Hints:
Belongs to the WD repeat BOP1/ERB1 family. The protein has 838 residues and is α+β, with helices and mostly antiparallel strands.
Amino acid sequence: MAKRKLAGPKKPAAKPQTSAQSTGNQQGSKLANVKGRAPRLLINDEDEDNEDEDEDGYIDDEAEEAEEDELEDESDLEEYDGEDGISEQFEGLLDGAISDSESEDNAGDEASEGDGEENNAGEEGIFFGEDVENEEHEDVAEVITNSVSDDDEEAEYLSKYSAASEAESLSSISSDQDDSMVAYYTTGADGKPRPIYHEIDPHYSSDDSDLEDMNTIGNVPLSAYDEYPHIGYDINGKRIMRPATGSALDSLLDSIEVPEGWTGLIDKESGADLKLTKDELELVKKIQLGENAGDVNPYESTIEWFSSKTEIMPLSAAPEPKRRFVPSRHEAKRIIKIVKAIREGRIVPNKPKVRPEDEQPVYDLWADDLQEQQPHVMHIPAPKVAKPTNDESYNPPEEYLPSEEEITAWNETDAMDRERDYLPRKFSSLRTVPRYENFVRERFERSLDLYLAPRVRKNKLNIDPDSLLPKLPSPQDLRPFPIKCSVTYRGHKGRVRAVSIDSSGLWLATGGDDGTVRIWEVLTGREIWKATVGDDDEAVQSVEWSPVKDSGILAASAGEKIFLCLPPIFDDETEVTGQELLAAGWGYAAQPAPVEHINKERQCNWIKPSTKLASQGVDVVIVCRKTVKQIAWHRRGDYFTGVSPDGANMAVLVHQISKHNTQSPFRKSKGIIQRAQFHPFKPMLYVATQRYVRIYDLSTQSLTKALQPGARWLSSFDIHPQGDNVITGSYDKRVTWHDLDLSTKPYRTLRYHTRAVRDVRFHTRLPLFCSGSDDGYINVFHGTVYDDLLRNPLLVPLKVLKGHTVVQSLGVLKVAWHPKEAWLFSVGADGTAKLWTS
């Protein structure tokens, strides 16, 4: 029969324990020694069943197997398992496992009696602290009752162990024991006081490390517990079971769905999966990236230990020492020595360095494998000579040989004007070819070309032309604007130079070279009224309706006269209002004089019209000294300007209807004045000369700004209804846009016309403006002005209106916008006026 060594009787120190567990065992041994009983020790897991142990300390394997077979049929198999067995009944520490030393032979019976005595002693114990139930003693009694065996061999062993443990327990009790560790005292079985200690606090409170020790098996490696279901013991002596491991499917799922902090490693201390916290993962990430693993801010602000600013004031206010201003004698002696050495030739300043003969480069001119040097980056190779053609052959084909006429013409042509410097000739053989007479000259010119003619490398820019164009909105999104000719007004003889639309938008006034002023009905194109104001076929230069509603006053200029008319096309109330406005000034003016007795000393004379003119509807005639080219009304309708480019200092005259008064705002003229116009709502006067547009403040009588369009000769200009932008047209085919808040130079220059620009106009309500030119075209633009000063105006070309005929290099002469609709009126040299609608 096979025998195996019993592991239980060995010393308890062989089982690895924590400090808390060892303390509990010591307390148990002390309690046992006080009673005089020896505790029964727990046998190792694989040798728990010790009832079949023989006298030599061995267990009969066959008997053990037979006993296990009998236990399988019983219902309490789990309480007496071969692995757990007695150990499940002893899951706590064997604290207080007491064996009475008086009867070692009858250990089992005496143990139960000892429990009774211990319980009685517990009841009679003296408490120094709170009254607590002595559950610990009841557990000890139960342990002793269940752990005592009747075997003689075991009793003999227990008697020996009891004596040793009692001696150890008595030696550990001292009189100077710390009372703070004792909960209370009780009377033991021997009548002596026995201390009961506080429950052990497993909290780790050491200051030598901030890492909590999770070790439960001491220095024993975890591999020693591979065959056991547990991996150590807790503070109460109970087993710490191994964490449950899943099946192969669970392992596969864990590998697919990786939990947070999972590393795939096993903790050697606890046996569970090793999971890292967020701080530990961040630390590993920093180490992988080569960053500083500590709590160090890499972006700390710089501490300027030394100031980066240059201090102007010196650190010391002491005066400069005298030696800094006195020449040094030592330096003077050294300079004298150096000068003497240079004169004697011992020192040669700026001496070129001469290479030794062995260091001078040597080149092999006849080497076949000579390495070619790389050309410079900016090197440009010389152009190659053109290869000879067929006519330069010594035996060219017959079609290349010149005829007698060609030879004569070539000889008579100057050498600089010849297409080629030679004449093709034919020779019978190569030996008969003479020397080329231009060879030396051509080689010399070739050398001059290579030497004197500079070669420049041009950098080619790969730029998409479409990317240079500004991104503009589609014209379809900017409607309405005029796109077609709807009505044509015919009746003038010769050129039509002037056009104007009244404030109601119903009546159109035109003036032409035939000296007539005509009024048309806008929608039908029918002529309503006609007046001949020009003498001796004087052309009507300008016509303008008064901006005052329900006044019906029309101003027209022909020659040196300005005519204020009241066309009989309005109702009686409008005619009466207009006559009152024109007649109110006769009381302020001087006595009217006949036309033949005009006072030449005055700037202008206000006279009543003749009977012929009065019958046509003319009420007032203003006679000026020079031809009036342009008329512009003030917004209130009481003032209007007349521009006479030949008038010098009286080129611009301001006329007042209510007082029949005329005044000249300028004493001296700066250039030839072309146009003059009032600001839409400010007391300002804009005057355009050939090159500049000057802005005058009438309230302060001063010049505020001078615009520089950059044109050679301005033809016209107009002011935006908001008053902050101006467009100009010039005879050099330009249209310029000026932003007064931006600069005096043009914001945009539009070059869409091929001939001189005659007139430009803003729409009073819509964001539209146009330009008319001698090429017969009218360009319509969209111009949006934003209230935000940070945004520039938006200019978009919309439409080119074609319909006027160019006559004697003159095309469109004047344009005007409808006051309400997106309609445009134009007149030209072809004697017609046109209405362009959307």
